[in-house]
Amino acid sequence: MTNFLPPLSREGLDDLTDYSALVVTELIANAAEHTASGLVRVSITLPDKQRVRIIVTDTSRTLPVPKKADADDEHGRGLALLDAVTQRWGAKATSKGKRVWGELKSEAAV
């Protein structure tokens, strides 16, 4: 699962690998579940020596809305999970769809 994140260990951000994989998986799952988008693009950038920014872009302009899931609900926890593991996250409509992103910060990197 984490094969798509090798630059993180090269940058000393090993502590973010699992959380980054979780964010990528959750954002792609949300795009697949809640949009009819035929195209989903993932971008992973390193804005500085301590942060990883994961961006998922799709062709739907409908922005995600956090929901409160009940204990027996099978869905509705994705954005709460994103909020729990990222330092910050957001969504923005674009001319061709939307961009949803999450940013993780390493405490180990210098």
UniProtKB/TrEMBL annotation:
InterPro entries: Anti-sigma-factor_SerPK (IPR050267), HATPase_C_sf (IPR036890), HATPase_dom (IPR003594). Pfam families: HATPase_c (PF02518). Keywords: ATP-binding, Kinase, Nucleotide-binding, Serine/threonine-protein kinase, Transferase. It comes from the Bacteria. GO terms for molecular function: ATP binding. SUPFAM superfamilies: ATPase domain of HSP90 chaperone/DNA topoisomerase II/histidine kinase. Signal peptide: none annotated. Transmembrane segments: none annotated. Residues 22-104 form the Histidine kinase/HSP90-like ATPase domain. This is ATP-binding protein. It comes from Streptomyces polygonati.
